[in-house]
Every structure is written in structure tokens, then in C-alpha cells.
Design brief:
Blueprint lengths: L1 E5 L3 H12 L3 E6 L2 H10 L3 E4 L5 H7 L6 E4 L4 H14 L4 E5 L9 H6 L6 E3 L1 H13 L4 E7 L4 E7 L9 E2 L3 H5 L5 E7 L2 E3 L6 E2 L4 E7 L3 H7 L9 E5 L3 H12 L3 E6 L2 H10 L4 E4 L5 H6 L7 E4 L4 H13 L5 E4 L6 H4 L6 E3 L1 H13 L4 E7 L4 E7 L20 E8 L2 E3 L12 E7 H15 L3
Parallel strand pairs: 1-2, 1-4, 2-3, 4-5, 5-6, 14-15, 14-17, 15-16, 17-18, 18-19
Antiparallel strand pairs: 7-8, 8-13, 9-12, 10-11, 10-13, 20-21, 21-24, 22-23, 22-24
Length: 454
């Protein structure tokens, strides 16, 4: 598969890095010679210095032979023109584009159905809002996502010393919890992602990821010592695109929302657009303002300014003032390993959200979804098993999966199976696997040959 990436910024670099690890034929195009030189030095990909909206540049990149063109520059206009030119030169090339400007939303349908015939449009802010809403529903959860149209959930929680499973061997879960047992897909300890086996123990302080039937989620959380509380009041710090979209989403569910924004002009703009949200002009780091607004009574505080340091400091301030449920927007990947050590657990990133959406679209065949966790150090992958796959030839205990991978769920028609070693995968089953980043390439090779994965 040949993929052309127009834009060598954070999203473009990250996707190129991931696809290069998977031995894809990747070409990165950017007008910035410094950016393309850095990618050429860091990654095993081809680079072309020039504008992605220039026909000659796209031809040099090999757009005629490309399966996918991905336009992710910081300019929506350049992204659209790149797709338009690619459509003229190579109509069969699939086109994916990142568009952030809200003004283009009414035109998404026409951009897909008419020239430039874009196959998929990714809005990072919209993806982040979805992530925030998922995290809000379980105050004790650090991460949360779903598969099979919401029928299966994965949740990441930090184990406390009072957790019933703290210090317990995984092999004992079945004896204690029976069929209600949670299946641990990953344990994160000392910033290392561990794919657990039966003799491993879950320890207090671990960040664990488990998978379960959505219908049994509350029961599973109860077994783990986590209480679900409804979210009725939310304070958002930062009235930019993400803050605005989030407040709109919360308003629709009749949740009381307040936005703190430092720009008076943006405050006036938000006040005109919002129906019920209270817009406050002020500094998000102002402790006096927080006290006046009774921040300790908030069910959640979300910091989504464009400055990582501000978001971190405001979240810490909110926690210090009695708010348990804080969600922090972070752009710099280098911060991720440090955040849990200072008490910042729930983190969202426009870049990671965009990358996950794009990779899910790029991966074809039997892949249904692909979700990264913990700063992209691990992945949940949802796929369909084929009759020709060796994964259907015997019990799971006899299947040779790559080290660092785990089959965590089997979905067979209306049945959701949390597998044991004796479980079998049948042709047509949906399967959910977890893999650490170092094992993704090996898993892909296995699944490419045996499942027609890509």
C-alpha cells in the first residue's frame, strides 16, 4: 500500500512514523525543507519538498500510484486543494483530509459527493469532544472507549490500595468473580505497558485497562471498587473551538455549563452563540474566581486552552480545591509520561484523536477499528476472523500470538465472550485484540497473512 501524506506537522509526522513501522510505502510532502529533512532523518520514508497543492509536486510524490492521499497540513484550504488536484490526476486514489474550520462543516457533504470527492473528513476538535464526553461518565476512569457499536467497553482506571483486586493474581479472578470477572488487557506500571498473564498481579497504583460487556460495566466497576456518578455541572476553561463544541454537546444533554475565557472578544462571541452556557471573562488560573464559582461543587472541570502548561496548572489547582474529575488537553507527547506522577490522569489530545481516526480509515479489509491508549504505547484492534485463519483452528491457548498481544474479546452474533484459554474463535467472529506498540508490526504480519487484515 502506497500512502502520500501532505503535511509534515505533528499529525503527519506521527502517522508517517506509525505506518513506517508497519512497512507501508510512505511519501511525506511539505513545503518546509527543514520539516521534510527531519522526517527523512528520523523515519524510513520518502520525502518531497514542495506544496501539496502543486500538481508537479504530487506527480513527483507518485500520486498516480498512490492508494491513499492524506492531507493534514495546518491550512484547510491547502488540504482541500491538494485533494482537488489529486482527484484530477488520479481519481482512483482515496482522499482523506483534516479540516478544522467550522465554516466548512456545511460543505462536508458536497466535498465528499462532488469534486474533489473526498472519502473522509476528520475534525480533530470533534474527536476530542467525543473523548471528553466518554471520560466524563466515569469519574474514576482515566480512559474509556467502545467497540461493536457500543456493545463492548474498555476502561482504564487507577487502582487504589482499597481496590478488591490490588495485589491479586490474575489467575484468581475467575475463582473470585466467576463469569463476572473483568479481563485485564493491560497493566501500566512505572510508565511501562504490560500485557498481563495469569501469574501477574495487579498492584495498588497500577493503571489497568479492562474489557467487558457494556451491560455489565457498572457491575464490573463495582467489583473493582469504582462508583459511577452522573455529571450535572461542568466548568470548561478555554473558550476556543474545543470548548465551544464541548459546551454545545453538554447543553444538548441539559448539563449545566460554565466557560472561563480570557479574551473579552471571544466571550462576547460565545455569549451570542450559546443558549444556556454561562460565559465568564477571566483567567482560568485565578483561584479567587474559582472560589466565587464554587468550583468544588462541579462534577467535572475540563481545561482546553491552547497552552499545555496552563491546562496542567489549572487542572492541578482544581484538584487542590476539591474537584476529583478533571480532564486536561495536552498537545506535547513528551508530557505524557510525567503527568500521572503529578496527579494528571485524564488527558485528551487533538493530535492523538486525529491520528486514531485516520489510522482506522487507512487500515482496510477486516479491521473495523483501531484505538491507541496511553500516549500511543498500546493499541486495541477490532477485526473480523476469516475461515482461512489459523486463529479459528483450535483453542486460544494453542494459538501462537506475538509476544505483547492478547485476545480480549470475541463477539459472535448476539453473544459477547470474554475468552479463556479454552475459548475458540469461529469464522465470522469479531475479535478484539490488544498489543503493545512494539508488537503491532508482528501482529500485522500475522494477521495480514492469516486474516487478510489490511
Amino acid at each position: 500500500m502506497k500512502i502520500i501524506i501532505v503535511g509534515a506537522g505533528g499529525v503527519g509526522y506521527n502517522i508517517a512514523s506509525r505506518l513506517a513501522l508497519e512497512s507501508k510505502n510512505v511519501v511525506v510532502v511539505d513545503v518546509d525543507a527543514h520539516a521534510t529533512r527531519k522526517i527523512a532523518e528520523d523515519l524510513d520514508v520518502k520525502v518531497v519538498t514542495g506544496s501539496g497543492s502543486n500538481p508537479d509536486t504530487l506527480r513527483e510524490a507518485g500520486v498516480v500510484e498512490a492508494d491513499i492521499l492524506l492531507a493534514v497540513t495546518d491550512s484547510d484550504e491547502i488540504n482541500i486543494v491538494s485533494c482537488l488536484i489529486a482527484n484530477q490526476i488520479s481519481p482512483m486514489t482515496r482522499k482523506l483530509v483534516r479540516l478544522r474550520n467550522e465554516g466548512f462543516i456545511p460543505f462536508h457533504a458536497s466535498l465528499k459527493n462532488e469534486a474533489p470527492h473526498i472519502d473522509n473528513i476528520i475534525n480533530p476538535e470533534a474527536e476530542v469532544v467525543k473523548s471528553i464526553r466518554k471520560l466524563m461518565t466515569i469519574p474514576g476512569a482515566v480512559d474509556k472507549g467502545e467497540f461493536v457499536n457500543g456493545r463492548v467497553k474498555y476502561v482504564g482506571i487507577r487502582l487504589s490500595e482499597t481496590s478488591p483486586i490490588a495485589g491479586m493474581e490474575l489467575s484468581d479472578f475467575h475463582h473470585i468473580f466467576g463469569h463476572e470477572r473483568p479481563l485485564l488487557a493491560a497493566i501500566i506500571r512505572n510508565n511501562k505497558v504490560i500485557v498481563p498473564r495469569g501469574k501477574d498481579r495487579s498492584m495498588a497504583g497500577d493503571l489497568i485497562y479492562f474489557v467487558c460487556n457494556t451491560e455489565k460495566l457498572e457491575k464490573t466497576l463495582e467489583l473493582l471498587g469504582v462508583t459511577v456518578r452522573p455529571v450535572k455541572k461542568v466548568l470548561i476553561v478555554g473558550g476556543g473551538r474545543i470548548g465551544f463544541k464541548l459546551s454545545q454537546s453538554l447543553e444538548q444533554d441539559n448539563i449545566q455549563v460554565k466557560i472561563v475565557e480570557s479574551s473579552i472578544d471571544r466571550c462576547n462571541d460565545l455569549s451570542m452563540k450559546m443558549a444556556k452556557t454561562v460565559v465568564l471573562h477571566g483567567d482560568g488560573g485565578d483561584q479567587k474566581l474559582f472560589m466565587e464559582e464554587n468550583i468544588s461543587q462541579m462534577d467535572a472541570v475540563v481545561t482546553v486552552t491552547n497552552d499545555d502548561e496552563t491546562n496542567i496548572l489549572v487542572s492541578l489547582l482544581a484538584k487542590n480545591m476539591g474537584v476529583d474529575n478533571t480532564i486536561t488537553r495536552i498537545s506535547k507527547a513528551s508530557y505524557y509520561p510525567l503527568l500521572s506522577t503529578i496527579g494528571i490522569e485524564k488527558v485528551v489530545s487533538p493530535r492523538i484523536s486525529a491520528v486514531s481516526s485516520i489510522l482506522q480509515d487507512i487500515r482496510q479489509g477486516n479491521v473495523i477499528s483501531d484505538i491507541s491508549i496511553y500516549g500511543e504505547q498500546g493499541e486495541f484492534i477490532e477485526a473480523v476472523a476469516l475461515a482461512s485463519s489459523t486463529i479459528t483452528k483450535g483453542p486460544i491457548k494453542d494459538i501462537s500470538f506475538p509476544k505483547g498481544t492478547l485476545l480480549v474479546c470475541i463477539i459472535r452474533q448476539d453473544e459477547i465472550i470474554i475468552p479463556t484459554g479454552e475459548s475458540r474463535v469461529e469464522a465470522g467472529d469479531r475479535i478484539i485484540l490488544f498489543a503493545i506498540l512494539a508488537a503491532v508490526k508482528k501482529l500485522e504480519k500475522m494477521l495480514t497473512v492469516k486474516l487478510g487484515f489490511f
